[in-house]
Design goal:
Elements (H helix, E strand, L loop, with lengths): L14 E3 L10 E6 L10 H13 L8 E5 L3 H13 L2 E7 L4 H9 L3 E5 L11 H11 L3 E3 L7 H17 L5 E5 L4 H13 L4 E7 L4 H7 L30 E5 L1 H15 L5 H17 L7 E6 L13 H6 L11 H7 L10 E2 L4 H11 L3 E5 L5 E6 H9 L17 E4 L5 H9 L3 E6 L5 E5 L2 H10 L2
Parallel strand pairs: 2-10, 3-4, 3-6, 4-5, 7-8, 7-10, 8-9, 11-12, 14-15
Antiparallel strand pairs: 1-2, 12-13, 15-16
Helix pairs in contact: 1-2, 1-5, 5-6, 8-9
Length: 462
């Protein structure tokens, strides 16, 4: 069969049985392979659906620009449809997302803006707020807003739900991660209307606020950072409909990442981190709630492909640094900061609009060779070094009265006090500058780690 375009082959993804990772006499576990969509994730389903919905409502005009805050996969789904329909795209991602996701989006020709993860949703630096601002500032732009755009949920209600019941009419439990709420609530609504005996179970990472709110109806604890991507939230989107969810289960980072690897090595399923989370959550829920359900059929959604996590889940060095493959041996960033306190300069940050002459004077006054540089909203954009300034002045590329912005090196990466020193060492070796932030204080900037800091720490360890 020949299809008109790539959008016509979205959906109808296969369902297969899990055999090796779920041994132990529990239920019969099956997975729906959403990474077999053309864009590699379940978000292909909502990308074209939300765009066509916006077109029908007159919100998106020909030649317009689509703006969206995304963890990566929705951006690809939107980019597929945008390529067919002739729209431009601007995507905003939190900085914890894998480099593969960022590169995938840029491969479509999209503009990608990276923002800090450890900030509140209403912080102007958050990827929610930056998306809204860019949509306002960009001519002929439309902010998709997958979190509050109910056509997200509608796509799964009208497409994914019927597809699942057609493929597996004897389904007893449906399990999916909860992020925007589109999948679990859209499919959940259809299932509850057509097979109310089926249990709908959502999976939420520890650190997200959704589980607590579902269980208590209150938001008592602030969200915490976690490494799982694509699911969990720090606010309650409008797509949530808890009336169609029977229960919710929490999963930890480590068990999710390890299961992601097991799905590949034991089942041949090259899926992403939220897929590992969903399988862990399903097994945990059955084990805790219904251990005798060995004759029940549990269907789990595997949202995306493992190809987007090569630098994380499938990278032994990254897994080891995260503490998932053995304990780090060189201590933590907090240890490094404590040992090098006496050699460390006070935190000084330049603004990208400052003149080069002012930055030189500050470096001279404080006897420092590099400075973090922020934008007008306080978000750290990179660092500027005395070497870069010297070279640019010598070559006549800049003048002392010019702003420092063109000389900012964006090769930075944020680390936390809990991260292992191995991670810092890898970053420095790769030519990047580690910037320490405190996730418990909304990403407050703590320090810049230099080569001499790392050498001092490693050279004085017992």
């Amino acid at each position: 069969m020949v299809y008109e375009n790539v959008l016509k082959v979205i959906g109808n993804t296969p369902i297969i049985r899990l055999n090796r990772v779920t041994q132990g006499g529990l239920a019969q576990f099956f997975v729906k392979l959403e990474f077999m969509n053309p864009g590699g994730s379940i978000k292909d389903r909502i990308g074209w659906w939300m765009i066509e919905d916006a077109e029908k409502k007159g919100m998106l005009q020909p030649g317009g620009t689509i703006v969206e805050g995304t963890s990566g996969n929705t951006g690809v789904g939107l980019a597929l449809a945008a390529a067919i329909k002739g729209y431009k795209c601007i995507f905003v991602l939190p900085d914890k997302m894998s480099t593969e996701k960022i590169r995938n989006l840029r491969a479509f020709g999209a503009k990608v803006v990276v923002t800090p993860t450890a900030v509140e949703p209403d912080d102007p630096r958050s990827y929610y707020q930056v998306s809204r601002r860019l949509a306002r500032e960009t001519p002929n732009a439309f902010y998709i807003n997958q979190y509050d755009n109910l056509s997200n949920r509608e796509a799964h209600y009208k497409m994914t739900g019927p597809e699942i019941l057609t493929q597996m009419p004897d389904i007893d439990v449906f399990v999916a991660g909860i992020g925007t709420g589109g999948t679990i609530c859209g499919v959940g609504k259809y299932i509850k209307e057509n097979k109310p005996s089926c249990q709908v179970v959502a999976v939420d990472p520890v650190g997200s606020i959704v589980y607590e709110y579902f269980k208590t109806g209150k938001l008592r604890n602030a969200p915490k950072t976690y490494k799982i991507e694509g699911i969990g939230e720090d606010f309650i989107p409008k797509n949530y409909d808890f009336s169609v969810i029977d229960d919710m289960v929490q999963v930890e980072d480590m068990e999710s990442f390890l299961m992601t690897r097991d799905l590949l090595t034991k089942e041949g399923l090259y899926s992403g981190i939220s897929s590992g989370s969903a399988v862990v959550g399903a097994m945990k829920w059955i084990r805790e709630q219904h251990p005798q359900w060995n004759d029940k059929n549990v269907l789990i959604v595997l949202p995306d492909s493992g190809s987007r996590y090569l630098s994380k889940a499938f990278n032994d060095d990254w897994m080891r640094e995260a503490g998932f493959l053995g304990k780090p041996s060189l201590g933590t960033v907090a240890d490094l900061l404590h040992m090098t306190t006496n050699t460390r300069h006070p935190i000084i940050i330049a603004n990208q609009s400052e003149k080069i002459s002012a930055v030189i004077e500050r470096m001279k006054e404080k006897d420092i060779s590099q400075l973090p540089v922020s934008d007008s909203e306080g978000w750290i954009k990179g660092v500027v070094t005395e070497g870069a300034i010297l070279a640019a002045l010598y070559e006549g590329k800049i003048k002392s009265g010019d702003p420092i912005e063109p000389l900012v090196d964006p090769s930075i990466e944020f680390v936390t006090p809990e991260d292992p020193v191995e991670k810092v060492s890898r970053l420095v070796t790769a030519g990047k500058t580690p910037l320490v932030t405190d996730p418990q204080k909304q990403g407050e900037f703590l320090a810049i780690i230099t080569k001499i800091d790392l050498l001092t720490y490693l050279g004085t360890r017992p």
